[in-house]
């Protein structure tokens, strides 16, 4: 068993451990490498923040991630690149089949993105700057140093703006987060843990460690006998003579999601006959939380208010969605399911459950959540607009939304699965042809059946249906990046010059 | 009740005809891999007994893997397979097929060996080339295509009507609501806009055979049990030895191969899956494989025949077929949701069952005591199943937009129309389905 202090936090980029919530000013830069040598020189001394705790807490932070083209531009050998997952190599928008799977069709289609929508547009580098209020400009000057402007070309600075701990629609954001089990104290064996737990094996988020299957996710491993530069890298736990380029690194998924805040609240206001309580009730049903973050679950622990459950609850007591609709946004994004539909009492009961007997027809339709968790690190952009102002006819128009970021060890099993099987799935948990009321596109099914509605189950009997939902969230850009560990960054910056610009 | 059956017409593609055949089959599609239901060659949509159909060109893309066992790959000629899942018996369906699509079928089969052209006796040839599966799974035995369409129409109609009337009558007033809905259905039936055909009587011959199968198989196993127990022990030890010594093949599928497969996926709410590979060498592996499939088939027929296969509720039809004189095996299924979620189900819900079966296939990740590990080796498993998957040239589903869960719900809604609920709670439950 490892102690927390034993974990190689000094080799992790800080974002894996911290949200940097106190550093409210951010600048997300999309860069292309124009001079690989200078870029590596800059990288050598760049003050990339590690995951070690600091006292007092830092006032600035810098994080870096690369797209596959970025790694190639820096001269990473193709044999190493091939160790990454196909999703990363092909890219978020690099394959129409992937776009279809992610719901990036219609108005979400990559052809219409502001960035990252086709191969030539995929940025090489994502640089994330964080600072306390007012400190960003000085921090940017500090990190840029002498080589920066000749090494990189700024493609775009993604907008970000701190509007409090809420997302643009007005709901508290990022309450549901997995707690990474850095010490690997919790068993991943389903016999020892068939219920939902918020503790997550480090390998689900960080490469080079055991994941929830007790396995090591595939990643680039390098033979140090063939590549002397690899000696700076950590060893591969599961394949010892080899060096692990992926260890302490993670995949970073970035998506710029535009949110139509006036559109959302005005639609609800109209459906709710302009009654504020009704409006907020429907909004809460769609989100799956009230405006103050209270989850929509029955109060089941005496003496504890529902608000206090925060991230500590499941939907076990609400299988039909009478409290929190099955299709609600947060229920789709993290259904909080365990490995078995309900807890098994004893081996016989366990066997019955495994064989699928004794179930209602609408039971056990969702995958076990622990294999599909995301560590979210997004930031909002655009000016705040309170719901009461958003319903006004002349609500101030502005670009608002979220720079959605999540960190995962396996893009297809985690981010893409959540997006496809849960968020965009018109049949999630047996719902009737509806997608995520907040995030979903409103494309009809192949059969022509519409999906632009939202059902709230009602214990009285008939469901309450809201029809003709407009699309509230539109994808404006996105990409898959790799956020290396600090020793892997050293390896990159030491790559010999003659390798640069190796053909892709 | 009308029982379902399946067919699989198989014939080797003649040398030099492969490219033409690909093009001809593609001409039946309106989306990559998806049949136009009204296509000119075989208008699948006109057959009201046909649930699913597909054309696959079975190629041994992974034939070389068996070399890891020190065995030389057997030759394999690209083979056309035409698969269908139907209501009622094969013979009458073939006649229907020929009646409506004789020229199209002849055009397709003329690319195959042993098909002599215009004067060929089509029915005889199709029957001669039909091979039986070792195991088949039907999500709901007895549920016909006609029933599925009628019940879907009933649900759609009731859903629209309920939305209009719920608030007028009062949502709490469930008895009055039910009465309204029931009268509405009667009216719609009278006007000819809804039909709810009562089930056909079960063919007595099928009933008899099914009963014999249900009793016969356990009876034979019981009689042989003393012998089987001894054999089982030997087999268990032998299999454990093989598990320890069999080579583990950790080969990543190429991106080109993956792209060829994924371009056909996630267009409808359901997808198709065809895999083909070698049976591991040796009689122990083959006999184990055969026995496991015998048991699978038994369970599918008599126990898992109403909406779920162990914990999986997303498979409509599936089949396991031995080919090439038991040296190779083909698996085909029609499932709901994305490939990734299908694999998630495979690993997390029925990994044990998958291990039991495919541990006998070349390239399957190493198992322990034939039910442990295996699929749980996530990467190795996902690589191997994709590597062995082959594209489906043409795929037809009679009810796009509907999942198996939808079909079960629609049947429950219909049941509620035909059988009165006894108390308010049951009425509420019924109303909540609509």
TrEMBL record, chain A:
Keyword Repeat assigned to the entry: answer is no
Cofactor(s) of this protein: heme b
Xref: PROSITE patterns: DYP_PEROXIDASE
Which GO MF terms are attached to this record?
heme binding; metal ion binding; peroxidase activity
Give UniProt keywords alphabetically. Answer: Iron, Metal-binding, Oxidoreductase, Peroxidase
Location of region: Disordered: 433-455
Q: Sorted alphabetically, which InterPro entries does this protein's record hold?
A: Dimeric_a/b-barrel, Dyp_peroxidase
* GO-annotated cellular components: cytosol
Q: Does the keyword Metal-binding apply?
A: yes
Q: Which PANTHER family match?
A: BLR4509 PROTEIN, DEFERROCHELATASE/PEROXIDASE
In its UniProt entry, what is this protein called? Answer: Dyp-type peroxidase family
Q: Give the species.
A: Nitrosospira multiformis
Recall the taxonomic lineage recorded for the source organism.
Bacteria, Pseudomonadati, Pseudomonadota, Betaproteobacteria, Nitrosomonadales
From TrEMBL, chain B:
What is this protein called in UniProt?
A: Uncharacterized protein
User: Which lineage do the record's taxonomy fields give for this organism?
Assistant: Bacteria, Pseudomonadati, Pseudomonadota, Betaproteobacteria, Nitrosomonadales
Transmembrane ranges? 211-237
Which keywords belong to this entry?
Membrane, Transmembrane, Transmembrane helix
